[in-house]
């Protein structure tokens, strides 16, 4: 491994491997196939980039997102790696030049979209080119049960069938046990060595809040992340546009992103998010897969995601640099109704619909759990977490629970007495004895359940109904526009044969209590570790980095990560030798930027 370590330091500026990187690199370099499961930010890319540099020929990387290939390639070129991409954004002349470089052995890494790879021209090109390995990134896209299924990935078995002597490495950050088995089966990787790293992201703080006034709650959350880059996920295109407008009106640099936008505007917004500091992207889940921006300090969901796998992958786009980051989820019972309707009215087969509904129920159970969030999340992927994590809302502020058996019986009875035809709002009005026009119109003031729930306020009853749905005792009837109806599991509760405990609804936060617990943002917290002089140097270096990135039309993090700039500011090296010992500075970046960095340090001493 001495040559791999030397290359790791000289090219990437790191002095040691993390986790199983060393074993993976050695295995693939020796010609072995591998299936790698590693969390976002865990260093997956190195697992195929280093073997590609160590083996003869070019490493061919199958990547599903054309929009991000340019940034991935530019980041490698900054390191002195001969990298290129082949996709539909290139004109004929540019594509021909990349093909010439590949055939001439002038490339170390080539990124290709699966659709392009499967074309006859590209397959014939590979026949004539020196290929070091095949890397299949985002390998979970092969699974028809996954959240990012791409049918083209199913055809990638051709790599093994046509070139069995070339090693393959498939990588993903999101795959439960069934998806792992399907990846191995669909890609003919049953005999490949499997490397499964911990799915834990200890730098992420998980928080779940119940939707009360979603817009206000989001602004309260963002008040603790002023000036930081982040992603806000919303359920629909219309919701994305509305939330983005509200954030802009509140003085936040927010941009929308969804599939219904003009393609050029969508691409421009993504470019701004990648290249500028402190931009908040409001998006549907169409945004984000493969995003390499390391300094995303938060991911906020203003609506419930579809599954735990999707939630895990989306939150994993925060804190890729290992610095503190936050995953915040705000949801309500209406989100459950909307998602169930989306699933049941979709074109998928009944088996697929049942699976998606089970996954939604599992996510709802995660949201309502009183246990450590990290334990629950990792448990879904078959990984145990020893003890409480100390970095989620349930650990930091343990929720109280209460005996909800009697309240549950009242709620279930009222749903039944009102004919299982209404949503939670109306049933709560009946329980609380509200004299509304709707209650009078249906004569529900004469029901035996009218007014039997005056001991709880509307917010507490909303929590009860949410938890009854999470427990599988109630479900939304999509054909009746989300009306609640009893399930078979509710019978033992109504008969007094089963007791329930509910999570206590916390009081509404007030004033300054609404701010993020990390004291004004993860980046601010990290910066506070620097003394006053180092902070001046750090800010000066960030300004220089932004200017340099604009000149080159590349994302700022491609020049240097924040963590690298912080280390430079803290240690204040006086010459190139000292600067070269800073983690994240390889030989190419030292040559390209060393003198400029030292000059800025000298100017701000």
TrEMBL record:
<dbReference type="GO" id="GO:0003678">
    <property type="term" value="F:DNA helicase activity"/>
</dbReference>
<keyword id="KW-0234">DNA repair</keyword>
<dbReference type="InterPro" id="IPR032284">
    <property type="entry name" value="RecQ_Zn-bd"/>
</dbReference>
<dbReference type="InterPro" id="IPR036388">
    <property type="entry name" value="WH-like_DNA-bd_sf"/>
</dbReference>
<keyword id="KW-0479">Metal-binding</keyword>
<keyword id="KW-0238">DNA-binding</keyword>
<keyword id="KW-0227">DNA damage</keyword>
<dbReference type="InterPro" id="IPR010997">
    <property type="entry name" value="HRDC-like_sf"/>
</dbReference>
<comment type="similarity">
    <text>Belongs to the helicase family. RecQ subfamily.</text>
</comment>
<feature type="domain" description="Helicase ATP-binding">
    <location>
        <begin position="25"/>
        <end position="193"/>
    </location>
</feature>
<keyword id="KW-0413">Isomerase</keyword>
<keyword id="KW-0067">ATP-binding</keyword>
<dbReference type="InterPro" id="IPR044876">
    <property type="entry name" value="HRDC_dom_sf"/>
</dbReference>
<keyword id="KW-0862">Zinc</keyword>
<keyword id="KW-0547">Nucleotide-binding</keyword>
<keyword id="KW-0347">Helicase</keyword>
<dbReference type="InterPro" id="IPR027417">
    <property type="entry name" value="P-loop_NTPase"/>
</dbReference>
<dbReference type="Pfam" id="PF00270">
    <property type="entry name" value="DEAD"/>
</dbReference>
<dbReference type="InterPro" id="IPR001650">
    <property type="entry name" value="Helicase_C-like"/>
</dbReference>
<dbReference type="InterPro" id="IPR011545">
    <property type="entry name" value="DEAD/DEAH_box_helicase_dom"/>
</dbReference>
<dbReference type="InterPro" id="IPR006293">
    <property type="entry name" value="DNA_helicase_ATP-dep_RecQ_bac"/>
</dbReference>
<keyword id="KW-0378">Hydrolase</keyword>
<dbReference type="InterPro" id="IPR002121">
    <property type="entry name" value="HRDC_dom"/>
</dbReference>
<dbReference type="InterPro" id="IPR018982">
    <property type="entry name" value="RQC_domain"/>
</dbReference>
<dbReference type="InterPro" id="IPR004589">
    <property type="entry name" value="DNA_helicase_ATP-dep_RecQ"/>
</dbReference>
<dbReference type="GO" id="GO:0016787">
    <property type="term" value="F:hydrolase activity"/>
</dbReference>
<feature type="region of interest" description="Disordered">
    <location>
        <begin position="504"/>
        <end position="523"/>
    </location>
</feature>
<dbReference type="Pfam" id="PF09382">
    <property type="entry name" value="RQC"/>
</dbReference>
<keyword id="KW-0233">DNA recombination</keyword>
<feature type="domain" description="Helicase C-terminal">
    <location>
        <begin position="214"/>
        <end position="361"/>
    </location>
</feature>
<dbReference type="Pfam" id="PF00570">
    <property type="entry name" value="HRDC"/>
</dbReference>
<dbReference type="Pfam" id="PF16124">
    <property type="entry name" value="RecQ_Zn_bind"/>
</dbReference>
<dbReference type="InterPro" id="IPR014001">
    <property type="entry name" value="Helicase_ATP-bd"/>
</dbReference>
<dbReference type="Pfam" id="PF00271">
    <property type="entry name" value="Helicase_C"/>
</dbReference>
<feature type="domain" description="HRDC">
    <location>
        <begin position="531"/>
        <end position="605"/>
    </location>
</feature>
<protein>
    <recommendedName>
        <fullName>DNA helicase RecQ</fullName>
        <ecNumber>5.6.2.4</ecNumber>
    </recommendedName>
</protein>
């Amino acid at each position: 491994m001495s040559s791999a370590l030397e290359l790791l330091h000289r090219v990437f500026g790191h002095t040691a491997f993390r986790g199983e990187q060393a074993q993976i690199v050695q295995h693939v370099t020796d010609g072995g196939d591998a299936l790698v499961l590693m969390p976002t930010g865990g260093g997956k890319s190195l697992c195929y980039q280093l073997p590609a540099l160590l083996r003869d020929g070019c490493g061919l990387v199958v990547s599903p997102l054309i929009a991000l290939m340019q940034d991935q390639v530019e980041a490698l070129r900054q390191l002195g790696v001969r990298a290129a991409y082949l996709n539909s954004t290139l004109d004929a002349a540019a594509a021909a030049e990349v093909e010439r470089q590949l055939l001439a052995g002038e490339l170390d890494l080539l990124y290709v979209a699966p659709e392009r790879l499967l074309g006859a021209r590209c397959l014939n090109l590979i026949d004539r080119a020196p290929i070091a390995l095949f890397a299949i990134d985002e390998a979970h896209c092969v699974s028809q049960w996954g959240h990012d299924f791409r049918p083209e990935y199913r055809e990638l078995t051709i790599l093994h069938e046509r070139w069995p002597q070339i090693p393959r490495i498939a990588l993903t950050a999101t795959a439960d046990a069934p998806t792992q088995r399907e990846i191995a089966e669909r890609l003919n990787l049953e005999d490949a060595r499997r490397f499964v790293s911990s799915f834990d992201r200890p730098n992420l703080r998980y928080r779940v809040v119940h939707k009360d006034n979603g817009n206000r709650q989001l602004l309260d959350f963002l008040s603790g992340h002023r000036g930081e880059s982040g992603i806000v996920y919303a359920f629909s295109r219309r919701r994305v546009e509305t939330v983005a407008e509200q954030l802009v009106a509140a003085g936040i640099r927010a941009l929308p992103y969804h599939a219904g936008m003009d393609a050029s505007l969508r691409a421009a917004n993504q470019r701004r998010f990648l290249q500028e500091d402190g931009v908040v992207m409001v998006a549907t889940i169409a945004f984000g897969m493969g995003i390499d921006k390391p300094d995303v300090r938060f991911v906020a969901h203003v609506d419930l995601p579809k599954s735990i796998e999707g939630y895990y992958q989306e939150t994993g786009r925060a804190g890729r640099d290992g610095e503190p980051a936050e995953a915040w989820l705000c949801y309500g019972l209406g989100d459950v109704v909307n998602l169930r309707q989306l699933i049941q009215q979709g074109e998928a087969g009944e088996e697929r619909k049942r699976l998606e509904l089970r996954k939604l129920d599992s996510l709802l159970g995660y949201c309502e759990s009183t246990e450590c969030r990290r334990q629950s999340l990792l448990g879904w992927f078959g990984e145990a977490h020893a003890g409480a994590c100390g970095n989620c809302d349930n650990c930091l502020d343990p929720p109280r629970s209460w005996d909800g058996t009697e309240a549950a019986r009242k709620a279930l009875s009222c749903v039944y007495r009102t004919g299982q035809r209404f949503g939670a709002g109306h049933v709560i009005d009946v329980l609380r004895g509200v004299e509304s026009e709707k209650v009078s119109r249906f004569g529900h003031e004469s029901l035996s359940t009218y007014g039997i729930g005056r001991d709880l306020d509307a917010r507490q009853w909303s929590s009860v109904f949410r938890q009854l749905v999470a427990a599988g005792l109630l479900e939304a009837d999509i054909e009746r526009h989300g009306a609640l109806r009893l399930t078979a599991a509710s019978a033992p509760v109504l008969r007094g044969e089963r007791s329930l405990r509910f999570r206590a609804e916390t009081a509404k936060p007030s004033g300054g209590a609404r701010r993020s617990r990390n004291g004004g943002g993860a980046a601010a917290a990290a910066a506070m570790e620097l003394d006053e002089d180092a902070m001046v140097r750090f800010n000066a270096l960030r300004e220089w980095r932004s200017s340099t990135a604009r000149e080159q039309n590349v994302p700022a993090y491609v020049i240097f990560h924040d963590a690298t700039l912080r280390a430079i500011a803290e240690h204040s090296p006086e010459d190139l030798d000292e600067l070269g010992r800073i983690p994240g500075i390889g030989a190419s970046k030292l040559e390209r930027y060393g003198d400029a960095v030292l000059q800025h340090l000298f100017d701000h001493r």
